[in-house]
Amino acid sequence: MEAQQTHQLVERQAELAELSALLAEAGAGRGSVALVSGPAGSGKTQLLQSFCKQAADSSAFLLTAVASRAECELPLGVMDQLFRCETLPPDFRRRVNALLADELAANRAAGADPVMMNQPSITVANELRSLLLELSERGPVVVSIDDLQFADGPSLQMLLFLQRRMKSSRLLLLLAELSTVRSPHPVFHAELFRQPNCRKIRLDMLTRSGAHTMIAARLGPAKAQELTDPYHEASGGSPLFLSALLDDYQAIHRLAGRLETEPTVSQPAFRNALTDCLYLAEPAAFDVARAVATLGTVGSSVLIGHILGLNTATVEHAIASLTATGLLDAEGFRHPAARTAILEEMPPEARHALHLRVATALQNEGAPPVTVAEQLVAAGTAPEAWMINVLRDAAHGELAASRTGMACEYLDLALNNCRDSRPLAALTADRMRIEWQKSPLKAMRHAERLKEASRGGDLTGQDTGLLARSLLWHGRYREARETLTRWEANDTGSDRVESEELAALTGWMAYSFPALLTESAGSAATPEPDACPDSARPFGRQAVSVLFRLLADGPGDEAVASAEGILHSVGLGTATLESLHAALLTLICADRPDRAASWCEELLKEAEQQGAPTWQAVFAAIRADAAFRQGDMATAVKQGEAALSQLPCPSWGVGIGGLLANLILATTMIGQHEKAVKYIRLPVPDTIFESRYGLHYLHARGHFHLATDRPAAALTDFESCGRLMTTWGLDLPSLISWRGGAAEASLALGLKSRARTLIEEQLTRPGTQQPRTRGASLRLLAAAGDIEDRPALLQEAVSLLQPDTGRFELARALADLSAAYHELGEHDRARGTAERAADMMTSCHIPAQWAQPLPVVRPPHSAPTAAFAGPSRSAGPDAPDGPRKGRKPVGAEALSDAERRVAELAAQGVPNRAIGRKFFITVSTVEQHLTRVYRKLDVSRRSDLAAKLHGSPPEAESA
Known about the structure:
Layout: H1 13-27, E1 32-38, H2 44-57, E2 61-66, H3 77-82, H4 90-110, H5 119-136, E3 141-146, H6 153-163, E4 171-178, H7 186-194, E5 198-202, H8 208-219, H9 221-235, H10 239-256, H11 268-280, H12 285-295, H13 301-308, H14 312-324, H15 336-345, H16 348-364, H17 369-379, H18 385-400, H19 404-417, H20 421-438, H21 440-443, H22 447-455, H23 461-473, H24 477-490, H25 496-512, H26 514-521, H27 539-553, H28 557-569, H29 577-589, H30 593-609, H31 613-630, H32 633-646, H33 649-652, H34 656-669, H35 673-681, H36 692-707, H37 711-727, H38 738-748, H39 752-763, H40 771-783, H41 790-800, H42 803-823, H43 827-843, H44 897-907, H45 912-919, H46 923-937, H47 945-949
Parallel strand pairs: 1-4, 1-5, 2-3, 3-4
């Protein structure tokens, strides 16, 4: 019997009318049989109940029974139910009980054929027929039997016997059964329909209109308009499922006070209806439904048969039955939550075992690795070796599609079940690769297992490269070198791709971790160029080779073209990060930071799409470097801070030195010294000073010291940087102009001759023909030279420096040129050049005082800061005596030359605009000078300046 239903009869009026007509005929003495059939949940039980109620209201006698799978082997179980009905008069019940008791004993001995009857059964059947005919004299008799497919054999015998002898009686035999592809009682059906008094009534699923009618009756017309389509689709037109969905809908509304437009098929009423439906369907339907739920699709009958150990015909019958009930369509379950409900109904052990059987069957069918791996993950185990290989292949497929979440699940399951050392090493490396994209620090938890695998010879060349990169990233240089040395000793060269990849990594080490190679080789780290043309090398080696040649020989169109060719050709991945990084640095060092910035934007988008925060952080840091080279300090700070937010400091490893270098420089340039101090105070690994990142860090910190009036400390950092670059064979001004910084510090210390020597040395170094490097060098050479020589040098510097690649250096060169013109009496040219310098500074978001000439005025001053960690040395024996030695300068002694000149004119009452015109600086610069003067002299008004300055007259030269 179908689940008890509370919905009204919908789209069954014609069938109900047909049954009523048959009852009328029975009342007229023309007995008949009606067999109602339909899929599970189609409303057969409700139709019988509605009709029986009408029959009872018309004074007919009702004898009802419901067959059950649990009693299908119980002889005369259905007959026993019929004749124990409360509607049967007591005297009839007593007579029937005696007859059935004798017949039950006979059937237990003789078997239960549904058609062939023995003599004792015929005798009993005749007696029962006589009783029914006697009862029908009092009124029409309706014999109703539901779920006939579960009826026992002897009861079916009795029904056929009765049918053959009831044509002239007042009997209506009403039967209901589940329509199936394969009838459980084919001979019974054949006998039943041989008789002309048998009528077959077929129930179909509800149409959309019928579903709308049912929903409107429960929820009203307005809500029915909204819910009909999704609910009709989810229920498949099954009155049973639709009623259950509406029950759940109303229950949720009562509890939560909300209405959902999507079917809530995971709630109790639907689950109960689903279980009832599967119970009533084909015998194999439950198992087939579970297999389909496990597969996620209907699949092939052959495959499901292999999974369940059933023949194909049985599977096809079950699928047809489930489709007829509205559970399945051609693809699978009509609603995904129905699948979930079936899976959750299974005991965990049975569910896991079924997933394993499905995985095995799929593998045997040649299914894609991901399809098989999904089943293994659902099973929670992978006990066989082939399963480990499938999980790894599936993980690689997911990674190729940027789905790292599922890739991790596959790898974790494989790792938990793998027992062989070589596959275990490969799986560990894969897991480390994925984690590195999100957190290089977290990824290091796999390093010890990979080091052990390396020592045991279980690592491939690719995985050796991964381990070495990770160790280098975190400053574990010696361990990285040991790992690579061990691989090289055992490398037979059979895998050219792996060998070339590791060769590219070694080249990258020469650039980024030169101390490591210098230590092992006892010489400079810069690799010698080989005769092999770039086009014949793998991209990794090409990228490093192009970068080194650029740094040594200076920029050219060929280097830019090679770098962009690599960026066009190389996909983003852990093993290609060095290649991409080297190509981007080539563009930056080739005075094409604009192209580098454009490529970084593309790579940032790709890294975001792949969900790789590490890659996003790396490219944001390079984007910051490009912006700094362009003179776009605001973007440099923004991108640098974005990189720092993507990865916390510990995850950056030694690379934090390069990122902080850009942030320190950019914030220093725009006068945000408090921010710069914050970045300087961030802890960095000691090992950064064994890498190029330490060089950038020392260089940036040196400029911060210059900006905060600590030229001796600045000189120490610049010289420490230079000493390391020389030792490592990386003394390339286009990489880091440490001599330029040292010269600037020397000028601030009054060491003009030393500054000139440093710049002259720099101009002899490889790569100094690069416009930006040469232009900046000429500016400093002019500052260290005689006034008569300055304009020519500065004019050449201005001609070399371009606004789109070096606005900041161009602005400073213009400021120096303005000062030179002024000192030589060319005031109009001085004024125009100063305005160009100020405009350039504004476009860079840099305070105009940074454009002041050297050495007359230095960058903006701030309170001296505490000493910072890192390589250090004394400023040298030729550092001049003065207020910078010993005690800290106070009062007027603490003023710079420019601040003193502005202060003395202000003390005389000269307006700010007039002071700016006199010294060829902006009003904003005058105000900034005065702000610092007030602070240093501890005054708040101009009228107090004269007393603090002792009345010293201002000097009439450029501020």
